Amino acid sequence: MKPKIVSWNVCGLDKINKRLRIRNLLREWKVDTVCLQETKLKMIDRRIVRSLWSGSHVDWLFLTSKGASGGVVVM
């Protein structure tokens, strides 16, 4: 089985509607691992991860943004 990995420049995750669209696409694509770049968020917590990942079991790591740019989350 080949894992499905997606790397995506999302240009910000501050709006819930955008996170829901990303969640739906990740579910449709049946992604195993995702790297979202340019999150532009200072903090990523369980609430944000749950709004992006539809499964109940997920681990994640993140790097915070610097000012109005940057930020990465890997799930």
UniProtKB/TrEMBL annotation:
Cofactor: binding comment: Probably binds two magnesium or manganese ions per subunit.
Required cofactor names: Mg(2+); Mn(2+)
GO molecular function terms noted in the UniProt entry: DNA-(apurinic or apyrimidinic site) endonuclease activity; double-stranded DNA 3'-5' DNA exonuclease activity; metal ion binding; phosphoric diester hydrolase activity
GO annotation terms (biological process): base-excision repair
Gene Ontology annotations for the cellular component aspect, listed alphabetically: nucleus
Domain Endonuclease/exonuclease/phosphatase: 6-73
Pfam family, one: Exo_endo_phos
Superkingdom of this protein's organism: Eukaryota
Annotated positions binding Mg(2+): N9, E38
Family matches, as InterPro entries: AP_endonuc_1 (IPR004808), Endo/exonuclease/phosphatase (IPR005135)
Keyword field: Hydrolase, Magnesium, Manganese, Metal-binding
Keyword hit for Manganese: yes
PANTHER family with a match to the protein in the record: AP ENDONUCLEASE, ENDONUCLEASE_EXONUCLEASE_PHOSPHATASE DOMAIN-CONTAINING PROTEIN
Name the record gives this protein: Endonuclease/exonuclease/phosphatase domain-containing protein
